[in-house]
Amino acid sequence: MSKLKISELFYSIQGEGRYIGVPSVFLRTYGCNFKCSGFGMPKGELSDERNKIDASSITEYKNLPLVSTGCDSYASWDPRFKHLSPVLSVDSIADSICDILPHGRWMDEHLVITGGEPLLGWQRSYPDLLSHEKMKPLKEITFETNGTQMLSDEFKSYLQEWKRNREKNALTFSVSPKLSVSGESWNEAILPNVIRQYQDVGFVYLKFVVASEEDVLEAEKATQEYKNCGFKGPVYLMPVGGVESVYTLNAKNVALAAMKRGWRYSDRLQVPLFKNEWGT
Ligand code: SF4
């Protein structure tokens, strides 16, 4: 039976992007190909905030400190926190999902498969999970991805089949390409061919996390590269999370920058609603 290494599994309200406000089960897989240590830092500097946390003293996700710089889901990929993410069978994951759904089974809730980067090797396990008897009523899935991982031929075919008897937009790829504010390099982060492949299977939108005018200009440049490669979906700008004092653009200015370009604005509802705590 297939297994997945799961960092978090929780029920909440989607706080970002196209399905903002929709009740959703979040399945956070372990592992990421990036570190994104530049978030919240002055240009060119990388955060080491997570390195200062004594990982050995932490036994549960709920006890993890929140960070205001770098990746806010650091424990879903940093090997020092690997012990917090159990390897679970798809049977046990499907059971746990039903346990946290308000009616004990799927109704109109959405499944968000997130990370880390959820399209790394776990692609091989999703077909078993999504085909599980308890997962059959599920109507809509979003993969929250950094947009760098191609779909395997097997997984792509499986998703096409999964979608066949469902609504047109049953499958969404929420792609958050990492601009230089993340600390990752352009050549490794902006991969238009990958997004074009997702578009063959589902609905794709781009969601750029920005902190300054310079980031917005980079988002424009990246969007043009994606469009040149055939990208057709909408573009969202979302303010960077964490402390606001180091940003030149606040939420209102991010909204204005989006409006100016005919793009969409995405809030981060989990911050005002739940203080961005783990499990929200
Ligand atoms: S891609 Fe996402 S999960 Fe991975 S390090 Fe960056 S922000 Fe964190």
Series of H and E elements: EEEHEHEHEHHEHEHEH
According to DSSP, the number of beta strands is 9
Query: What overall geometry do the principal axes of the alpha carbons give?
Result: globular
Structural class: alpha/beta
Gap from first CA to last CA: 29 Å
Largest sheet: 9 strands, mixed
List the bound ligands. iron/sulfur cluster
Order of strands, widest sheet: 3-1-2-4-5-6-7-8-9
Number of helices: 8
Protein model, in words:
With about 280 residues, this protein is α/β, with parallel strands linked by helices. The protein has 8 helices and 9 strands. Strands 3-1-2-4-5-6-7-8-9 form a 9-stranded mixed beta sheet. Helix 6 links the parallel strand 7 and strand 8. Helix 5 packs across helix 6. The protein is globular, with a radius of gyration of 18 Å. The mean pLDDT is about 95. The structure holds iron/sulfur cluster. The site of iron/sulfur cluster has 12 residues, from loops.
Summarize the structure.
The chain has helices spanning 90-100, 126-130, 153-163, 186-189, 192-199, 213-228, 251-260, 270-274, and strands at residues 3-13, 23-29, 87-89, 110-114, 141-145, 171-175, 203-210, 235-239, 264-265.
List strands and helices in order, with pairings.
Layout: E1 3-13, E2 23-29, E3 87-89, H1 90-100, E4 110-114, H2 126-130, E5 141-145, H3 153-163, E6 171-175, H4 186-189, H5 192-199, E7 203-210, H6 213-228, E8 235-239, H7 251-260, E9 264-265, H8 270-274
Parallel strand pairs: 2-4, 4-5, 5-6, 6-7, 7-8, 8-9
Antiparallel strand pairs: 1-2, 1-3
Helix pairs in contact: 5-6
